[in-house]
Design a protein that fits this description.
Layout lengths: L1 H22 L2 H9 L12 E3 L4 H8 L6 E3 L19 E3 L21 E3 L5 H7 L3 E4 L2 H7 L8 E4 L4 E2 L4 E2 L10 H132 L5 H55 L3 H79 L4 H11 L2 H18 L6 H63 L3 E6 L9 E6 L13 H18 L4 E5 L7 H14 L4 E5 L3 H5 L3 E9 L2 E8 H12 L1
Parallel strand pairs: 2-3, 5-6, 11-12
Antiparallel strand pairs: 1-4, 6-7, 7-8, 9-10, 13-14
Helix pairs in contact: 1-6, 6-7, 6-8, 8-10, 11-12
């Protein structure tokens, strides 16, 4: 709507400018100014004619359409002494009676097709248009031409003039050509401007309403999103509470199960203790029986001893046997008494343990009876109900949020469609304004050239009348006017837009220059880093290759090993190791034995240690697949490299242990008890030497 209103206003401004230029023609401007006619109203400014008859009126009145209006012609007698130098008409606004002739059926008077805004203009029109009648077509005029009275004229819609003795064909050779049609178009454009302004206001009102709706929808969307976030937080809090309650219930259930298990274990232990108590009672009874038998034996032995004392002298061997038997019996008695004491102590301990177990069972039974899980179940059910209600609320909120997002997307799509429709119109308006501005600049350039050359337009007009062909000039004028009309309105904001575009382009050029400089700097840094990386990596690779060439023969007692790149570009290439132990020509490292693979790996690791020594190195049974000879080489290499790196190795090999400075082992003197034993080899050697000395 704004583009349409701007286009109509620009068209009206262009037409008004053309009309104003006609009213202020260069040929008569100075003359009219000197005689006070610069602001006088022209005849065409107060005329209205039926649609389609503009050329007819222009053909009859010609330059009189541009006539100046004055109150009295005779009041300006000074005109007679100074001619305007061009075709100029002046009419007076004097009251009079307007009369028109009539041809009856031959045609309507041209005067009837013309209306005047000022009633004082009617007499002069009646004078100029007297005996001028209209014919629809040239053929109609030719059919009635011979019946015209003397001095009468027929004019067709196209502007051709017919009298009894002549036909004058119309061609737009007057400077006032199109003035009436332009005036009619100006009036129509004024109505269009009013309608366009109304539509523009309505569109702006709709736009304001739409923006308000969008803003309101966005606010509602933000509120709904906040509400959704709050609901999600509430849901998260509810879930966390539910998880905590579930964990608490699980812990309670686990405690109940544990109590039940402990109760079962206590019952089993109680049964076992009862069984042990019964066995102890049986043992006590057996010990009592043994004690009774031993007592009987003791009495018999004492009786025998009494009898033996009387016969001691007779049989010393029998006395000695009786003494030995007595000693054995005493031993058995003492052993039985000790067993009795131990049994009594065991019975007492078992009784105490049984009392403690009874007390623990009673305590656990009371604790199980007091435990109530009903509140936990109710809390769990309440938490589940809260979770379900909050999930329902969250689903409703998500549905509302989805609806609002759908409405917002539809509004955005409508806005994009409107913007896509407006863009071609804006482009067309911009092109038309540029064309109009170009035409205006061209016109000003031509006017400036005429002013610079001090050209006399009156003389040029006389020269054109004398030597030039009017039809050719008229056709050229029409063509130029058509091109001017096709240019459309001028974009008055083009200079400001050009300035803004130039500033934007300057800023973008500066940014592009900065980006180019940054890209150049970055590419230079990348190239420098790649170059330094290649150099350092190549030097490191060469040094590592040198170390492995020295380390491999030291471990194998000969042979050769080297590192080889698998690709041409070192940054993307892999590394392969070629190992040839002495006396072998293997094609693949997979053909080596386990010990040879271990030594090859150790040579690579130790080569890297030589390249970048570490403070310590931990080796876990790396000597397991080695034989004694290779183990000795490995031990010697460790001792050599231990000057720069501390080695901690785990090993079961005695040869490797001989090269260690300190041994740390684990022993188990008692079942289930481990102890760490450390031995300083150097200190042990010193102690051994001291003892030997």
């Amino acid at each position: 709507a704004g583009g349409e209103a701007t286009h109509v206003q620009a068209r009206r401004a262009a037409l008004e400018q053309l009309q104003g230029r006609l009213a202020n023609a260069q040929a008569t401007r100075e003359w009219a100014t000197r005689h006070g006619l610069a602001d006088a109203r022209r005849l065409w400014q107060g005329l209205r004619i039926e649609d389609g008859w503009e050329n007819a009126l222009e053909a009859v009145l010609r330059e009189r359409l541009n006539a100046f209006s004055v109150e009295r012609i005779d009041a300006a007698a000074g005109w007679l002494g100074e001619m305007p130098g061009a075709k100029v008409a002046v009419y007076e606004l004097a009251a009079g009676v307007a009369t028109t002739g009539s041809l009856g059926v031959l045609g309507r008077p041209l005067r009837e097709l013309v209306t005047c805004d000022d009633a004082r203009t009617v007499p002069v029109l009646a004078d100029w248009l007297s005996d001028v009648f209209v014919a629809q077509t040239l053929a109609d005029g030719m059919s009635v031409r011979e019946r015209l009275p003397a001095g009468a004229t027929l004019v067709t819609r196209e502007g051709h003039l017919l009298t009894r003795s002549s036909v004058v064909f119309y061609a737009p050779d007057s400077e006032v050509h199109g003035v009436l049609s332009r005036q009619r178009e100006i009036e129509a454009l004024a109505v269009q401007i009013e309608h366009a302004g109304t539509r523009l206001q309505e569109a702006r009102a709709r736009l304001i309403d739409a923006n308000e709706n969008v803003a309101r929808a966005r606010r509602e969307l933000v509120e709904r999103r906040h509400l959704g976030d709050e609901l999600r937080q509430q849901q998260h809090a509810g879930q966390m509470q539910l998880v905590r309650q579930t964990e608490q219930a699980d812990r309670i259930e686990q405690r109940i199960a544990q109590i039940e298990r402990e109760s079962g274990e206590i019952g089993a232990e109680r049964a076992a203790e009862i069984e042990r108590l019964a066995a102890t009672d049986v043992n006590l009874a057996r010990f009592a029986e043994q004690l009774h038998s031993i007592g009987a034996q003791l009495a018999a032995t004492r009786a025998e001893a009494t009898g033996a004392q009387s016969a001691l002298g007779k049989s010393r061997d029998a006395a000695q046997q009786a003494a030995q038997a007595l000693q054995q019996a005493c031993f058995r008695v003492e052993s039985a008494q000790a067993k009795i004491v131990e049994g009594e102590a065991a019975v007492a301990s078992t009784g105490r343990e049984l009392v403690d177990l009874h007390a623990e069972v009673e305590r656990l039974t009371i604790e199980c009876a007091r435990f109530d899980e009903a509140p936990i179940q109710r809390a769990l059910q309440q938490a589940l109900a809260d979770r379900e209600s909050r999930e329902t609320a969250m689903r409703d909120a998500r549905d509302r949020l989805s609806e609002l997002e759908t409405a917002l997307r539809s509004i955005d799509e409508e806005r994009l469609v409107c913007e896509q429709k407006h863009e071609p119109l804006r482009n067309a308006i911009g092109d038309a304004k540029l064309k109009e501005q170009e035409a205006r600049l061209t016109e000003e350039q031509f006017a400036a050239k005429l002013a610079e050359t001090a050209a006399d337009e009156v003389a040029l007009a006389l020269l054109a009348e004398q030597g030039a062909r009017p039809r050719v000039l008229a056709g050229e004028i029409n063509r130029l006017q058509a091109e001017i009309g096709a240019l459309g309105a001028v974009n008055l904001a083009a200079l400001e837009e050009l300035g803004g575009a130039v500033e934007k382009k300057t800023a973008l050029d500066a940014q592009a220059t900065d980006l180019d400089e940054a890209i150049t700097t970055l590419e230079s840094a990348i190239r420098r880093i790649d170059r330094e990386t290649r150099e350092r990596l190549m030097a490191t690779f060469a040094e590592a290759n040198k170390h492995i060439a020295e380390m491999f023969p030291a471990l194998f007692g000969g042979g050769h090993a080297e590192l080889v790149l698998t690709g041409e570009e070192i940054l993307d290439s892999g590394v392969q190791i070629f190992a040839r132990p002495p006396g072998k020509k293997n094609a693949s490292i997979q053909l080596l034995s386990g010990g040879e693979k271990a030594l090859t790996a150790l040579s690579l690791v130790f080569s890297l240690f030589l390249l970048n020594p570490a403070p310590f190195c931990l080796l876990d049974e790396v000597d397991a697949p080695l034989d004694d000879t290779n183990t000795e080489r490995f031990r010697n290499l460790l001792q050599k490299m231990s000057a720069h790196t501390q080695f901690l190795f785990i090993s079961h090999n005695k040869i490797t242990m001989e090269g260690a400075q300190q041994l740390i082992g684990v022993t188990m003197q008692e079942q289930g008890v481990s102890r760490v034993v450390a031995v300083d080899i150097e200190q042990a050697l010193r102690l051994t030497e001291a003892q030997a000395a």
